[in-house]
Structures are given as structure tokens and as C-alpha cells.
Design a protein that fits this description.
single chain, about 270 residues, alpha/beta, Rossmann fold, eight-stranded mixed beta sheet, 8 strands
């Protein structure tokens, strides 16, 4: 039987709460030896903590945790992490904070044994996240496996080769849901312009977004093969793709520029 993980979760807000839900649902953490540190968890999370019999804000910040998970807002990290260097000296640290490099985390948690960065995204809240992970070369395979197990509880994971890869992943998967939401929004607007009611057009656009995601999760063919499967020669989809992805490939160029802009901004914001 696989040993469950003892976790100290710092911050149970939107992302911390999503992580906690995934860990409890997946049975990957040891509730008896885990703890949550949050001065005012929202009612839903407080109830979840109570039902799982997790320790909330123990007065003595000691123990043999496997991993310290940092899920606080970056701007409050310095104050929030101040009590935790002793724990970080014994446990690995897994940070899901945006904009805080491993070097910055090391300054907030001096003497930390091992620090790993993770960049999950919004769909993690419904167990369908995509998370990029980075660990320096000296982080042990055991600590890497612990991080993998925790983040797999909320979706897919991928390791990047260097810390700059976290910025690139932020631009692709971190910001990426908004790109698909924008496409669905534009599709709904176009449907109204084509004569559908606002309600019908929004329903079809949302259902198409959900269905396309479910289909790509089910069918493991390459993405270009899936695109071609929808586009029959001479058909309606081919006509539409001729506008979106014709000889000038304007949409591909625009997406490339958007990802470059997001990655550049992620780098600028990282301390």
C-alpha cells in the first residue's frame, strides 16, 4: 500500500482550497498528520477541513511533514512564511505561487531543504488542471515524486527543464483557459450575428467548448489529426478554417504573439 503524504498547507484560498479538495478526494494525504494554516478559511473549506479531520492552525508549528505547500498570495508571502523556516528545513517545499522564484522562496524560507515550483491553472478547481513543475537538479527523486502525486490529484502534470519554463507554461496553460473562454465568447457573438438568439448561441458555444475538451481528453490522436477529422474536404468547417488558418495563418501568428507577451510579462513579474 502506497504511503500517504503528510502535508502542511499554507493558504487555503482559491488554489489552496482546490488542492485540498483534490487531495482529500484522491486519498493522497494523511489527514491525521497533515495541517492547514490559514487565518480565515472560507466556510466551505473550513467544513471540508473539519470533515476530513485535518488540523487547522495548530499552535505548535512542528512535526514531521513530508512537504510544505505554499499557496498564499505573492504579496503576502513574506509575512505568511515568516514562521515556517523550521518546517522547511525538514520538509520539501512545493510552491504554487506565481511570480516567486526559487531564489526568492529561499530568502523567505532560509535553510529550506528542497524547493519545487508548480504552476497550476484555474481548471484545477474542478480536477481538470494542467500543472507545470520545476525542480533544481539537487532535489531528490523522492521529493519530485511527492510533488507529482500531489499535483496529479488535480489534473495533468509536466516537468519543465528550467525555471524559465515556468514562465512559458504560465503563458500556455496558466493563462490558456482565458484564451479558450475568449474564443467561446467570440463564437457566441458570431452566432448571434448569424441569427441565433443570445441564449441559444451562448449555450451552443459553451457546450462546444466543453465537448471539444472532453473529446481531446478521450481521443489521443495528434491535435492536427483531430482538427482534420472535423474538417471534411469542401465542407463548412474547411470554409471556416480557410478564414482562421489560411495561407497567412493569422490566428497561429496571433496566438504565438499572445503567448510571447504573457511569458514576457510573467518573467517581468517574477522576483
Amino acid at each position: 500500500m502506497t504511503k500517504k503524504i503528510s502535508v502542511a498547507l499554507i493558504g487555503a484560498g482559491s488554489m489552496g482550497g482546490a488542492l485540498l479538495k483534490g487531495w482529500i478526494a484522491g486519498g493522497v494525504i494523511d489527514a491525521a498528520t497533515s495541517a492547514v494554516f490559514d487565518p480565515a478559511p472560507r466556510d466551505e473549506i473550513a467544513t471540508l477541513i473539519g470533515q476530513a479531520r485535518l488540523c487547522l492552525n495548530p499552535a505548535r508549528r512542528e512535526g514531521a511533514f513530508d512537504v510544505l505547500v505554499v499557496a498564499v498570495k505573492p504579496q503576502s508571502a513574506a509575512d505568511a512564511l515568516a514562521p515556517f523556516p523550521p518546517l522547511a528545513a525538514r520538509a520539501s517545499v512545493l510552491s504554487v505561487m506565481a511570480g516567486r522564484s526559487i531564489a526568492a522562496l529561499g530568502r523567505s524560507l532560509p535553510g529550506a531543504r528542497a524547493i519545487i515550483r508548480a504552476m497550476p491553472n484555474l481548471p484545477a478547481a474542478v480536477g481538470a488542471g494542467a500543472t507545470a513543475l520545476f525542480a533544481p537538479a539537487d532535489v531528490s527523486p523522492t521529493d519530485r515524486r511527492v510533488a507529482e502525486t500531489l499535483m496529479r490529484a488535480i489534473g495533468e502534470i509536466a516537468w519543465v527543464e528550467d525555471e524559465a519554463g515556468i514562465d512559458a507554461a504560465t503563458a500556455v496553460s496558466g493563462s490558456g483557459p482565458a484564451y479558450f473562454f475568449l474564443l467561446a465568447e467570440a463564437l457566441a457573438e458570431a452566432g448571434r450575428a448569424a441569427g441565433l438568439t443570445a441564449e441559444t448561441s451562448a449555450l451552443l458555444a459553451r457546450a462546444t467548448l466543453v465537448g471539444a475538451g472532453a473529446f481531446v481528453a478521450h481521443d489521443k490522436r495528434a491535435l492536427d489529426a483531430l482538427r482534420r477529422a472535423v474538417a471534411s474536404p469542401g465542407g463548412t468547417t474547411e470554409a471556416a478554417l480557410g478564414v482562421l488558418d489560411g495561407e497567412t495563418q493569422e490566428v497561429r501568428k496571433l496566438i504565438k504573439r499572445a503567448v510571447e507577451a504573457a511569458a514576457r510579462r510573467a518573467h517581468e513579474l517574477t522576483e
